[in-house]
Amino acid sequence: IRVKHGQEEAEYLHPLLEPILSETNGVIIYQEQVMEIAKQLAGYSLGGADLLRRAMGKKIKEEMDAQRETFVEGCVKNRIDPELASTIFDAVAKFASYGFNKSHAAAYALLAYHTAYLKANHPVEFYAAVMCMEMGNQAKLAAYRQEMARRGIELLPPDVNASHALFAVEDGGNGPGVRFALAAIKGVGRQAMEALALERERGGPFADMFDMVARVGNKVLNRRLLEGLIKAGALDGFGCNRRSLVESIDRALAHAHAESENAASNQVGLFGEGGIEIPKPSPVEVTEWPQMQRLAFEFDVIGFYFSSHPLEGYRPVLAQIGATDAAQILDPERTTEGRPVRLAGVVVGRRQGQPARRGPAGDRPARRQRLRLELPGLPVAVHELPACGQ
User: Fold this and answer.
1) Residue 255 gets which letter from DSSP?
2) Are residues 91 and 151 in the same domain?
3) d(CA 166, CA 132)
4) Mean pLDDT of 209-222
5) Are 95 and 127 within one domain?
6) 390 has a pLDDT exceeding 50
7) Strand-strand pairing, 176-179 and 155-156
8) Under DSSP, is residue 186 helix (H, G, I), strand (E, B) or coil?
9) Does residue 376 surpass a pLDDT of 60?
10) Tell me: the pLDDT tens digits for 226-285?
11) 290 vs 80, 104, 310, 348, CA distance in Å?
12) Whether residues 216 and 273 fall in one domain
């Protein structure tokens, strides 16, 4: 990049490399460049150069050793020092980890430029689009949510009277934001959420859960689906606590069934009045779940904490022990590299196995406010206190 902007001069290991690598400022990028280097410096035929390209792609040691010998011998015949020839071969071999043919690289570059342009100039629409593509991946949705927060873009909560099946751009009061998709809630399904959104557009906002289930139909909105919506907070706008809504699901399904049976019977009175009016039940009155349980349910169906965070009530304690806000770790102006830091987090999962270069323990993803981290699983603590790690 510095060469491209005239801040440095391109360097070439041999003058014969300059006409081959000048368009990429001295860096080997394309497969065609590898083949041309083999032809011009080592006297390879076109077919032989293609065999070299394939050998580097496969990274088979025996083939690479044979190709090195052939390459160096060809370079020596071309009056190139054998040590320099071996260095050039090493430089060419490094290409195998990232190189493409030129047309492939050009297509990727164009796509990367378009993506970067949209992300920089139309970020709200960009995040809505990419989150639609990753609806089944909660970890990626959580990562995009963190990016949006750092850029000041609001992710609006799921709401059966505002959300669509997919993520959508919406004015959240603090400027354009992204409304969370109903279909991104674990266990609900896109087809059912499209039916729900269509009914809302047709008949207007839902008055309550009983109205919603009756209008959309109990064949579409079953117990599992309703529990997912409730635990995600998508029915919070109805004014009932989430536990009350879950306890009222059976009443809502029974009411919807009765409404459906009434409509099917098409009963008409003596004077032409409509069918029998089915009285709407009342929600079950119970106290809300404890905060930690409520947030655990929310995390399970969304993939991250939305309405609050388990550590929210511990701020005074965290301040006393000098806990660092984990977001500072990613702040280049407040770097903590090389310094010990004290973090507070919530263990949201555990992977058993052998993490690369980490010792015999599982990695633990931990969340602190708007940062999700993959952490080595504290081998000693995990082995000594297995109950705490489960």
Assistant:
1) H
2) no
3) 6
4) 94
5) no
6) no
7) parallel
8) coil
9) no
10) 999 999 999 999 999 999 999 999 999 999 999 888 877 765 544 555 567 788 999 999
11) 76, 54, 11, 18
12) yes
Q: Are residues 126 and 170 in the same domain?
A: yes
The mean pLDDT value for 128-156 works out to: 94
Q: What are phi and psi of 58, to 5 degrees?
A: -80, -25
- CA–CA separation, 356 vs 285, rounded Å? 51
| Rounded Cα distance, 196 and 220, in Å | 9
> Could you tell me the sign of the dihedral formed by the alpha carbons of 134, 137, 140, 142, in that order?
positive
- CB contact set of 178 (below 8 Å; sequence gap of 6+): 124, 127, 128, 131, 148, 153, 154, 155, 156, 167, 168, 169, 170
Domain count, the chain: 3
- Do the Cβ atoms of 262 and 278 come closer than 8 Å? yes
Residues 51 and 19 reside in one and the same domain: yes
Residue 7 within a domain: no
Q: Which two tokens stand for residue 47?
A: 């077919």
Residue 205, pLDDT > 60, answer: yes
What is the sign of the dihedral through the CA atoms of 339, 340, 345 and 351?
Answer: positive
Start-to-end C-alpha separation, the chain: 48
Contacts of 66 (CB under 8 A, 6+ apart): none
Domain that holds residue 51: 15-101
What's the pLDDT band for 362 if we cut at 50, 70, 90? very low
d(CA 347, CA 368): 10
Calculate the average pLDDT of the chain: 85
Among the candidates 292, 322, 340, a domain finishes at: 292
pLDDT in tens, 29-63: 898 999 999 999 999 999 999 888 888 877 777 88
Whole-model pTM? 0.76
What six digits make up the tokens of 179? 């409304």
Place of tokens 């020596």: 76
Q: How many helices (H) and strands (E) does the chain have?
A: 16, 6
Answer yes or no: is 299 within a domain: no
User: Which residue, 277, 284, 217, is CA-closest to 251?
Assistant: 284
Tokens 């309550």 identify what position? 208
Q: How far apart are CA 41 and CA 191, in angstroms?
A: 61
Beta pairing partners, 347 = 366
